[in-house]
């Protein structure tokens, strides 16, 4: 049997973050985007690293890492649109 007690704090944090996102708490979105982008980049860099040292089948992980970068691109696009609309006075 494995001891999962080290995962209680991250699980609690992610549960609170999920509830904050459901309640549309503004500071929760950048936190969510930061963590998903971080995990996505770790997966992509790890896939490249393991493909160099071990097997190229690890490159299958790159689309999974790229999918975790989608919230970052959506947030950047939304911020640019809101800045443009504020500059135009709309």
Quick rundown:
By secondary structure, this protein is an all-alpha fold.
Q: Can you characterise this structure?
A:
- Helices cover 74% and strands 0% of the residues.
- By secondary structure, the protein is mainly alpha-helical.
- The protein has one domain.
- Helix 1 crosses helix 2 and helix 2 crosses helix 4.
- The protein is flat, with a radius of gyration of 18 Å.
- Keywords: Membrane, Transmembrane, Transmembrane helix.
How are the SSEs placed, and which strands pair?
Layout: H1 8-22, H2 28-53, H3 61-67, H4 70-88
How many beta strands in the DSSP annotation?
0
Q: Between the first and last Cα atoms, what is the distance in angstroms?
A: 60 Å
Please summarize the sheet with the most strands: none
| SS-derived structural category | mainly alpha
Mean pLDDT across the residues is 86
User: Which stretches of 5+ consecutive residues score pLDDT under 50?
Assistant: none
| Coarse morphology | flat
For the CA atoms, what is the radius of gyration? 18 Å
Helix-strand string: HHHH
Transmembrane segments: 6-25, 32-52, 58-76
Keywords: Membrane, Transmembrane, Transmembrane helix
List keywords for this structure.
90 residues; mainly alpha; 4 helices; 74% helix
